[in-house]
Amino acid sequence: MSSLPAMPQLAVPQMPALPSSGFRLSKEHFLVAVPVAVVAAVGGFLVSHYLSGRSCKKSQVNTCISKDSPKVVHSFDMEDIGTKAVYCRCWKSKKFPYCDGAHTKHNEETGDNVGPLIIKKKDT
Ligand code: FES
Q: Where are the coiled-coil regions (predicted)?
């Protein structure tokens, strides 16, 4: 009687036991995850701090008008304005509080878009 040749035994790797529940971190994963999380948090903070600084700089608007005064205030009576008054809002006018057109040069040099406040009586 003939018999079949013996089949070679295949080595079947053992499957690691799955954790029964929850998420587990090994010590090696933890040692990598913590520095990555810290770097990500610090990087995020620095990027947001940089971007917020770019959008709104804390600097003085008034660079030269009545700097010895704690607050620059002008008041006008409506009756004294006449038919039209043009007031500076860029703080660059040599005739402040009136506009002398200095905002045009300021806008060209800085890329800003400031302009005057114009108050006038309605055309009837
Ligand atoms: S000069 Fe300042 S708004 Fe015109």
A: none
